[in-house]
Amino acid sequence: MSKKVAILGFGLEGRAAWRYFKDQGAEITILSENQPTDVPEGVKVEYGPDIFERAMGYDIVMRTPSIRPDRIKTDGLISSGTIEFFAQCSAPIIGVTGSKGKGTTATMIRDMLQAAGKKVYLVGNIGVPALEILPELTPEDIVVFELSSFQLWDLPQSPHIAVVLMIEPEHLDVHRDFDEYKAAKATIAAHQGESDTVIYLPSNPYSLEIAEQSLAQKVPYTKAPGAEIINDALVIDGQSIINVAELPLPGYHNLENACAAVTAVWATGMRDVRAMAGALKVFEGLPHRLKKIRRVQDVTYYDDSIATTPGSAIAALQAFDQPKIIILGGSDKGADFTELAQEVTEQNVRAVILIGDTMPKLHAALQQAGFTKIYSLEHPTMNDIVQKAQSLAQSGDIVLFSPACASFDMFKSYADRGGQFIKAVQELKNN
Ligand code: ADP
Question: Bridge partners of 416?
């Protein structure tokens, strides 16, 4: 008899799960809170606001990352694309988590391994559902899996190599509290054995704590025996990989990410230093991650729309010595802006432009820190925002669009927000 599978949510992950189980001849029903669009012909759909609480009569119920596991009421087995992938994957997995830096670090790892001739798949939160590549995977390949807390939450396995980057309070609109978020993150190392490796950031207490709880070999990064910066070179095991100035990405945080990535590649046993160096030297970074757009009237504009947390905006501020105009604000994920406001007072910031729902919270935090050069824009268009920045900037300044908040108050997504920023900057007049 064919398996009865319910797929909860029909986004990117849901669609991949549908293809995967269809190929196995399963009997599939899509359960969705709203009426899903683009459902293939002949597929059974049930929808309604409480649909996840009525997922009865299925053998397997596939959770999408955005759904809390405890919202689902079922008499079947709760699984997910991540759980299914880990259970079936024949290749070694390098898992990468942390609040910020996952996408960048995971991509660096992929690029270095690929440059050394390995067949590598980069999947997960980066935007490629893991189930999509499962059929073509062989045991000789390597999987780099970017893992969010929502994917890790109910995962009963851990990767062979776990990379735990900096952790700060995040997603407190979904997670009940910071403890719940940290517990979800800890899953990346919680099920590891002694032959596995956990790579962690010793200066971050939460990353350290996750590593300490694991049975795996513990390797720090930014500190030996992992990769570290010595005399302006990125060094591991006494071998210099690149000079700091050769990494095209701005900011110390990206050097940290490179240290994490090199440490992970080293943990696979790969020692092709030339290939690793070659990959890092041409790594231009991912879109909307502190990306230089253009210089207009000697002012340089950076799109960092994916900076949706205070920590990532702090990293952006620290990346440049020049005077800065920073645009902050967006929808509220329950973040605390105290530290960010303090950093604004210390990082040569000429002015802050505030936008979005978090404007009052940011305003209060900045005032509390004694910063007064605040410009609040009520319901601005992106052109208004960029023109305001241009009017405040002086020759040699940096304009940072690094909002420290999610985008859903004014935009469809961080990519939409970043795209609009880029367009508005492209339209600025150069005279
Ligand atoms: P993630 O995939 O975890 O969201 P990304 O690599 O996509 O991380 O980067 C997202 C944002 O976080 C960007 O604004 C980037 O500049 C910033 N960022 C990247 N790495 C770090 C880090 N190690 N510490 C703080 N901020 C970081």
Answer: none
Pocket lining: 288 vs ligand 1, CB cutoff 6 Å = no
Q: What is the dihedral of CA 104, 210, 185, 331, to 10 degrees?
A: -70
pLDDT of 371 above 90: yes
The pick from 99, 100, 110 for probing ligand 1's pocket by mutation, whose C-beta has the most ligand atoms within 8 angstroms, reads 100
Write the pLDDT tens digit of every residue in 133-186. Answer: 999 999 999 999 999 999 999 999 999 999 999 999 877 878 888 999 999 999
Distance, in Å, from the CA atom of 291 to the CA atom of 38, rounded to the nearest integer, reads 33
Task: Please say whether the beta carbons of 225 and 203 come within 8 A.
Answer: no
Ligand 1 neighbourhood includes 289 CB (under 6 angstroms): yes
DSSP for residue 164: E
* Ligand 1 centroid to residue 33 C-alpha, Å: 31
**Could you report the per-residue pLDDT of 232-287, keeping only the tens digit for each?**
999 999 999 999 999 999 999 999 999 999 999 999 999 999 999 999 999 999 99
Tell whether ligand 1 has an atom less than 6 A from the beta carbon of residue 256: yes
Task: Count CB-CB contacts under 10 A for residue 243.
Answer: 13
**17: its two tokens:** 């799960």
